[in-house]
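Project outcomes to date are best conveyed with an example. Our students and postdoctoral researchers have been running inverse folding experiments weekly, and each run begins with a structure described purely in tokens. The record below, which covers 268 residues, was selected by the lab manager from last quarter's runs and is presented without edits.
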């Protein structure tokens, strides 16, 4: 019997990893629960969340908390479940327990709390717990990225500047890791800073396509911002760097025509 239960648990884990949550749940429900097998209930909870069966998920997590009321992880699960059920007051109450139990030296756990508060638009709490994580490790990018979300929501230019500088100062940045601050500055119409972020990355040939896509996004956003497009007097494949440069000059000085690479251009 023990072997059968173990096999069902392993089968359930495999189905879960393959995103087959209905089949995974069926397997886990065949595993008898005992005091040492709360992991099965956690898997059941996660399956029910994925299946959007939130009321059932909440019953599972409440049962686990009744047996282990001092688990920070379980209270986090409860908070998330209440958010999915659109009961923010109960989510905040659960987060109060999380705050009481949290380890303030665990930077990952602190950012977990910040992420849940971000779901609730509790910006001050997000900043508080991100700053606690950064006090443990000032280069911890997940904490900086959570603050990026807050800065974007608040349109806080000072915070955006500070976060951009903090992230750029961390060694080992690549184009992908800098996407959050690129997007934040792009939405804030800070096009020069976007170009600085791209230039900051040391790109190899395999990343040139991604670079072109980001520069294309700058040009497109600039065009929409200015409600303008570049026209050419004859067919010519204008490099995106030049297109951005012309639009930036138009934005600054109003210059709407001229010649580039021997081709007349105009901005309408």
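After processing, the design step wrote out the following sequence:
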């Amino acid at each position: 019997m023990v072997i059968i239960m173990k096999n069902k648990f392993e089968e359930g884990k495999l189905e879960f990893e393959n995103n087959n949550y209905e089949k995974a749940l069926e397997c886990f429900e065949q595993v008898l629960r005992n005091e040492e097998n709360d992991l099965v209930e956690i898997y059941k909870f996660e399956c029910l969340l994925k299946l959007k069966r939130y009321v059932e998920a909440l019953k599972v997590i409440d049962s686990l908390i009744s047996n282990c009321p001092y688990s920070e992880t379980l209270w986090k699960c409860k908070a998330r479940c209440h958010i999915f059920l659109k009961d923010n007051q109960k989510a905040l109450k659960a987060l109060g327990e999380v705050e009481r139990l949290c380890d303030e030296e665990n930077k990952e756990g602190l950012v977990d709390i910040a992420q849940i508060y971000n779901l609730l638009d509790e910006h001050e709490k997000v900043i508080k717990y991100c700053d606690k994580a950064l006090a443990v490790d000032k280069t911890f990018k997940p904490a900086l990225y959570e603050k990026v979300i807050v800065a974007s929501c608040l349109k806080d230019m000072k915070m955006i500047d500070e976060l951009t500088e903090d992230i750029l100062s961390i060694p080992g940045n690549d184009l992908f890791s800098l996407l959050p601050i690129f997007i934040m500055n792009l939405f804030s119409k800070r096009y020069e800073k976007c170009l600085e972020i791209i230039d900051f990355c040391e790109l190899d040939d395999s990343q040139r396509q991604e670079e072109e896509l980001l520069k294309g996004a700058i040009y497109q956003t600039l065009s929409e911002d200015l409600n303008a497009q570049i026209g050419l007097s004859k067919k010519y494949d204008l490099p995106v760097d030049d297109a951005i440069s012309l639009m930036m000059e138009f934005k600054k000085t109003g210059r709407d025509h001229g010649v580039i690479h021997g081709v007349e251009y105009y901005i309408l």
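The CA atoms of residues 68 and 251 lie 61 Å apart. The chain has a mean pLDDT of 90. The training component of this project remains on track.
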